[in-house]
Amino acid sequence: MISHTADVCPVRKQPHPTARYIGSAAPGLGFYHVELIDVNAQRIGTLQNIGIVYVEEGSITKEELAAEFTIIYKTSWPWQIRSLDEWSFLVKFPPEIPVTQVA
To answer: Which domain of life is it from (predicted)?
Structure first.
């Protein structure tokens, strides 16, 4: 039994589900995971739009990481990177690249 016509069907008027590309990784090609931290919510001085980058495999210096980010984001931004330990870095992103979109 039909309870309504197709032109007034509430299911047809709902947004259609779509897939969204998040990113990809492959063995040997490298992968950067940027985690947001509470520092962005606090906005202490110049500590705005920052994230922590974790190195999950291999090793990289902060200079190499800055060179990689320059290539990835196609910018001449003077990357401010602070080494937190052997596998993590605190990175300040440029204002035109919100870290919330990168994470």
So the answer is: Eukaryota
DSSP 30-62: ---EEE--THHHH-BTTB-SEEEEE--SS---H
> Residue 2's pLDDT is what?
64
> Looking at the DSSP assignment, which residues form a beta bridge with residue 52?
35, 90
What's the rounded Cα separation, in Å, for the pair 80 and 48?
Answer: 12
49: left (phi over 0), alpha (psi -120 to 50) or beta: left
In this prediction the pTM is 0.54
For CA atoms 94, 98, 99, 103, give the dihedral sign: negative
Q: Would you list the domain boundaries of the chain?
A: 24-102
Mean pLDDT along residues 24-49: 60
Q: Which residue has the tokens 């995971």?
A: 33
Using 50, 70 and 90 to split pLDDT, how confident is the model at 25? Answer: low
